[in-house]
Every structure is written in structure tokens, then in C-alpha cells.
Amino acid sequence: MTRIILTRHGHVEWIAPERFRGRAELPLSGLGERQAEALGQRIAQSGTPDAIYTSPLSRCVRTGAAIARATGAPVQVLDELADTHYGQWQGLTHDEVRARWPDELRTWFAAPELAQIPDGETLAEVLVRAIKVLRVVLHQHAGQTVVLVGHDSINRILLLHALGLPLARYWRIKQEPCCVNEIEVGDGETTVVRVNETRHTIGLTSP
Length: 207
Description:
Blueprint: E1 2-8, H1 30-44, E2 51-54, H2 58-71, E3 75-77, H3 94-100, H4 102-110, H5 123-140, E4 145-150, H6 152-163, E5 180-186, E6 189-197
Parallel strand pairs: 1-4, 2-3, 2-4
Antiparallel strand pairs: 1-5, 5-6
Helix pairs in contact: 1-2, 3-4, 5-6
């Protein structure tokens, strides 16, 4: 049985008010740093993972480092875990995007699988990356426990794929900062054990 602990990076400033973060380099906030430390302790309680992989963006690298400190597991970057490339929408609020691309934004929320972000990725392209991530885990860490530190978007896609659900269900899954999801793969079967667990971050507040 291969066990995948899928998590999201800690809080960053563009989460609220929300902007399209994408490939922008955003440091963890003070809250995000505390969430990452709590996440590391939460994962350590269930044993030492065999490997940790993070998105190349610093908010995930920092979160992965906190998990590594708590567990002693080796950590490395996996480019395919990067956030969705939002093209011309990166850094903009929803209202700013709506003012310039109203039809495209409407499609993004109503039928995300059909959305085409100007100069950005489609969800189908993100799915291709997500499958590459799973191949790395299953080929290099069969029978082991692996932590993946990703983003809201790539995590939703990984979970949809594990559940056998279409990209049209993208908005049906929520991912809070430093949440814990768990996926088990064995004997050709994939089981999603938990989604968006956040008990370890309860009570943490902004500075």
C-alpha cells in the first residue's frame, strides 16, 4: 500500500482578499509559518514519511521544510506540483479580472473544465502534470509514505483524479492552508481516506 499525504502550503497574503496567485512568489505570512509548524507536528504524529516533495514556489518549499524538521524525512522539489499558471490573470482580484474578461471568468466558475485563461493553463493541462506527480510517487515510492506539498489548484485536481471525478467538479473540493488529505493506493485500487483536515490549525490566528 502506498500512502500519499497531500497538503497545501501555509497562509499567504493574497488568499484574502483573494487574488489569482499562480506562479507569483509569495512568502508565508506569520500565520502561514505557524500553520506549517503545526502541520509538521501533525504529520509526525502518524510516523516518519519516506519522502517529501514540494512545489518549486517558496511558500511550498518553506512548508515542506517545516515538515522535514518535524519528521526528519528528506525533502526535494518536484516542478509538476507548481500552482496553475494563470497567465494574464496572475496577481489580479476577481473583480479586476471580471472587468476585463467577464465571459472568461464566468466560464471559469461555471464550467472550469472549459475555461481558457489568457496565456495560462487549462485544467486539462494541470491534470497532465498531476498524473506525472502520481507516476513519480508510485514508481519511486511503492509501498511507502510520501508527503506532497502543493497548492489549492493542483491539489483539487489530484483529489478529483483519485476519486474518479471529472474536472467539471473542480469547485466541489475545498483546500484550506496546511490541510491534510490522505490517499491510499494498492492492488489497483485508490482510496481517499481524508480530505481537507484542518484540526491541527484550529486556534491559530493572524499576528
